[in-house]
Write a structure and sequence with these properties.
Blueprint (H helix, E strand, L loop, with lengths): L1 H25 L11 E4 L4 H14 L7 E2 L4 H8 L10 E4 L5 H9 L5 E16 L9 H8 L13 H4 L10 E3 L5 H15 L3 H9 L1 H9 L7 E3 L4 H9 L5 E5 H6 L4 E3 L9 H5 L6 E9 L9 H11 L16 H13 L5 H5 L2
Parallel strand pairs: 1-2, 1-3, 5-6, 5-7
Antiparallel strand pairs: 3-9, 4-7, 4-8, 4-9
Length: 354
């Protein structure tokens, strides 16, 4: 009898805990009113998300200000996909598109209704200190300089001249993003792989052994020529500002914000400017995204209004472009504004199509 009572009490406690968790997640009154929107993710998108959050707080004084955390795109998506409920993020900011494998991870944890919004454009910028080293780079030169095994061979390059005779004989020293960063993912896709595929043998390798291709084309050297600065783009700016022979990699907004300290380096003779990124003439141009859990829309006060605040902010000449975001085309803005209103759910087929 005592055992049966203990079992019933234990079962009742578990049910009570489950009910409390559900109420916190799915009730639009009571305790859930104390919850603020919680977003994690990209260090590149972070300053933009912070500005949208500040404007949201001014427009909605009766709601708590959104909590924005810079965790890196990869880590942010992992946190976002960990499940539903009050202890998980409502949104993730991403400096690259979600991968189909990440979509599957979300679905496995019942995060199966995701709203994808493109919020603007950015560029992966290569920069040096103002008046410092000037390099006219190319994806091929960057790949040869930074790859762990350029074209499958040992990495022997010590200077920029070693990878391109037209470049100066200064030592290769690059400060950049870590492996968890969306900026690093975009660096691989937009620059390193492009440079790697200048060798026809690498194109053939992709068809015969994709894992080996990825390793050769995207693995970055670890002998000190490339220095991982964590999810701290401002620290990269500080590093190169203090060393005229160093090169840094970060989002365009950090270049624009620090033009008194650093200068952009051309890629294929194209300068990293607003217009060149908007037109995708600059090789490092990339879209920026936010992902939202539709299941949290009713449970988290202000989540829908926060999405709408993004839509109010991304126009050319709007608050986000004033701090370095590059505006989307009018067609893209209209398509993403429609997603805000309709709360259209992303499908895996859409991710696989691009």
């Amino acid at each position: 009898m005592a055992h049966r009572i203990h079992t019933l009490l234990k079962t009742g406690a578990a049910l009570a805990l489950a009910a409390a968790t559900l109420a916190a997640c799915d009730d639009s009154s009571g305790g859930s009113e104390q919850q603020s929107v919680h977003a994690v993710g990209s260090s590149t998108v972070y300053p933009f998300a912070k500005l949208v959050a500040e404007n949201f707080a001014r427009s909605n004084p009766d709601m708590r200000s959104p909590l924005i955390e810079s965790t890196g795109t990869g880590n942010g998506i992992q946190l976002f996909c960990s499940g539903l409920g009050p202890n998980t993020p409502d949104m993730v900011n991403a400096s690259r598109r979600m991968k189909p494998s990440e979509f599957d991870s979300c679905a496995a944890n019942k995060v199966d209704e995701i709203i994808e919004l493109q919020v603007g454009l950015d560029g992966i910028v290569f920069a040096s200190s103002k008046g410092g080293i000037m390099l006219n780079l190319s994806p091929a030169a960057v790949y040869k300089a930074l790859a762990a095994q350029p074209f499958g061979k040992p990495q022997t390059a010590k200077t920029w001249k070693d990878v391109d005779p037209a470049l100066p004989a200064d030592p290769i020293l690059v400060y950049g993003p870590p492996s968890t960063s969306g900026t690093r993912d975009a660096l691989k896709e937009l620059i390193l792989e492009v440079g790697c595929k200048t060798d026809p043998a690498m194109k053939a390798l992709k068809d015969s052994d994709e894992d080996k291709y990825k390793q050769i084309c995207t693995e970055v050297r670890d002998d000190g020529a490339y220095v991982d600065q964590g999810e701290q783009d401002n620290l990269v700016v500080q590093k190169i500002a203090g060393n005229p022979r160093a090169v840094g990699i970060f989002g365009y907004s950090y270049l624009e914000e620090n033009l008194d300290k650093v200068q952009g380096l051309p890629m294929n003779s194209v300068q990293p400017t607003y217009d060149n990124i908007a037109d995708f003439d600059y090789p490092g141009a990339r879209p920026l995204y936010v992902y939202v859990k539709k299941a949290h829309m009713r449970a988290i006060p202000g989540l829908e209004a926060f999405m709408q605040e993004w839509g109010k902010s991304w126009a050319k000449g709007g608050p986000l472009t004033k701090i370095g975001m590059v505006a989307m085309t009018p067609e893209s803005m209209a398509a993403n504004a429609a997603k805000v209103q309709s709360q259209t759910v992303l499908t895996k087929a859409e991710l696989e199509a691009k």
